[in-house]
Write a structure and sequence with these properties.
Blueprint (H helix, E strand, L loop, with lengths): L1 H32 L4 H34 L7 H12 L27
C-alpha cells in the first residue's frame, strides 16, 4: 500500500511539470517551424530581397526604354535614333555599313569560318 501511494505521489509531482514542458515544446516548435514561424519569416525575407532586386533591374530597363522612346517623341525627334530603329525594323543597311556574316553554328566572338557553298 505504501508503495502504491508513493508512486501516485511521485506521478502527481511529475505530471504537471511534464505537461507544462510538452506544452512549451509545442509552442516553441511551432514558433520555429510553423506557418508564421522563424523559418517561414526568413524565407519570406529572402523572397522579398529577390523581388526587390528584380524590381530594381526592371526599373532600370524601363528607364532605358523610356529614354529611347523620348528620343522618338514628336517634340524632340532624334534623327539618328529614328534611322537606327528604321534599319532594325526594316532590316536595311546603309551603303557605307560593313556587314559581316557568320555561320549559324558559330558563336559570335570566335574566328569566322568560311561558308561552304
Amino acid at each position: 500500500m505504501d508503495l502504491r501511494r508513493d508512486i501516485k505521489r511521485r506521478l502527481a509531482q511529475v505530471t504537471w511539470p511534464m505537461l507544462g514542458a510538452c506544452l512549451a515544446g509545442y509552442f516553441v516548435y511551432h514558433a520555429v517551424q510553423g506557418d508564421r514561424g522563424i523559418v517561414a519569416w526568413m524565407q519570406l525575407n529572402q523572397q522579398i530581397r529577390v523581388a526587390e532586386d528584380e524590381l530594381a533591374k526592371t526599373d532600370t530597363e524601363r528607364q532605358e526604354m523610356e529614354q529611347r522612346v523620348a528620343l522618338l517623341s514628336n517634340t524632340s525627334l532624334d534623327l539618328d535614333m529614328l534611322e537606327e530603329r528604321a534599319r532594325v525594323m526594316l532590316n536595311f543597311a546603309h551603303p557605307d555599313d560593313l556587314v559581316i556574316f557568320y555561320n549559324a553554328q558559330q558563336t559570335p566572338g570566335t574566328a569566322p569560318q568560311p561558308a561552304l557553298n
